[in-house]
Amino acid sequence: MRRETQNILLLLLGGALLKIAITGDYLRYVKASQQPWLIAAGAVMLALAVTAIARDIRTAHANESQAESGHGHDHGHDHGHDHGHARSAWLLLLPVLAILLVAPPALGADSVTRAGNRAPAPPADDLVDFPALPSTSPVDDTLSDFNARAGWDRAHSLENRPVRLTGFVVHKGADTYLARLVIACCAADAFPVTVKVTGADVESLPDDTWLQATVLLVPGSSTRANDWTPSATVEALRHIKEPTDAYEY
């Protein structure tokens, strides 16, 4: 790969990192705490690229000055054999340009469907003492906490408690789910958490429709047999835009 190609790739990659870090698009790939590292990495790449380009320009000017003074040498060579490698190097620009021009969306219903059931392993005795829920009604909760409490809460704190969940619609066969993807570090390690939902005509909504739904847990619906996927009845729902941060942690 020629130095000019290396410098341009480094410049564009650094610019892409800074762009997604500043605009918030990085939340489609990594968790929020990674933003300072992305900004630092993008700034370092840009600095290195600018430094390398400036040095190459100075070197080129120095060589031209030597040639004009009669001290230059003819270093012409046939570089035709390197054209294939150059074309391969430029292909590296495609993912960078994709991020710069058209940032891919966050993972959604298709990822949930392809992932299948990947419920975390329950505790040894299947029961846990969870913190008490707030006294407000409905209770705002994450899908992750709702799933865990539905399957393993010793106090059955969700029973007869309206809970407001935020997620997107996923259809699997005849069943409809409210889903969210959970990441530990980045989208590559994402796994889904789902709640099977019925009522309020939720079955008619297309995949990837984002909702804020108030639900009531169906007692005893989360079991080993269904991979700890609880069922809930939708009492009320509101259509919302996709959150800036679409994942749970």
From TrEMBL:
- Keyword terms, alphabetized: Membrane, Transmembrane, Transmembrane helix
Tell me if Transmembrane is a UniProt keyword of this record: yes
Quote the protein name from its UniProt record.
Answer: Putative repeat protein (TIGR03943 family)
Residue ranges of the region described as Disordered:
62-82
InterPro entries per the UniProt record, alphabetical = DUF1980 (IPR015402), DUF1980_C (IPR048447), DUF1980_N (IPR048493), UPF0703_membrane_permease (IPR052955)
Q: Where is the composition biased (Basic and acidic residues)?
A: 70-82
- What residues form the membrane-spanning segments? 33-54, 89-107
Q: Which PANTHER family match?
A: UPF0703 PROTEIN YCGQ (PTHR40047)
The yes or no answer to whether the keyword Oxidoreductase is present is no
Domain DUF1980 as annotated: residue spans: 8-116, 159-249
